[in-house]
Structures are given as structure tokens and as C-alpha cells.
Amino acid sequence: MRALANTIRGVNVLRRIASRINHTIIMMSTLVAAAACADTKSTTSGLATTAVVVWPDTVTINVGDTLRLRALLRANRKLLAGNNITWTIDDSSVARVFGGLVTAGHVGSTTVTASAERARGSAHVEVVRQ
Known about the structure:
By secondary structure, the chain is of the alpha+beta class. The protein has one helix at 2-37; strands at residues 49-55, 58-62, 66-68, 70-75, 78-81, 86-89, 95-98, 101-104, 108-116, 119-128. It is 28% helix and 43% strand. A 4-stranded mixed β-sheet has the order 2-10-9-6.
């Protein structure tokens, strides 16, 4: 019995590690793709923002964990790093967001939205028990 319990604990630890590695790979690959196909600047420089791209756009995290969401602004066919992004969340009982950092609270799902000027982008967040 004790061996089975230790095996189950070990599997759960490996799942958490794999989940974090997966989130890191998704964020890194999105950053590389965005950098490769766009001219990035630190501000919108007076260009009208037409869209906000949030990545990862779908995530699953454990209760109590945190995850950084990123956002790029699209303006005049260019992707720009956004300094004036407002982050909101639909259900603050499931998770909270501050500056793109999502902290999971309770099991459930919610949507995190990044807004700049009149444009918006969002990510679906699923919170699960560890």
C-alpha cells in the first residue's frame, strides 16, 4: 500500500513538472514566432492598436500556482510590445490577474482579457486541483 501511495505521489509530481515545462515551451515558441515575423518596438508610438494577441491563449494550472500571460499589440501590420495594457478577469473567484500574472484560486474556468485602446485579446484559463 505504501509503495502504491509513493508511486502515485511521484506521478503527480511528474505531471506538475511536465505541465510547467509545457507552458514554458509554448511561451518561448510564441515569442520566437512573434519576433521572427514582426518588427517590435517598446510602445505604440502613436499608431492605432487594431488587435491584442495574448499567449498562451489556453492554459490549465493547478490551484495555488501562478502563470505569466504575455500580450503583444498589433498596429499597422506590426506587432508592438505593449506598455499600456489593462488586464481583467471574468471570474475573480477562480483566479486573479495583475499585470498579466495569473494566480489560480479555486477549481473552475475563466477568461483573462488584455485591453489596449479599443482592442482586446483573451486567454482561457482552466484551474484544476493538484
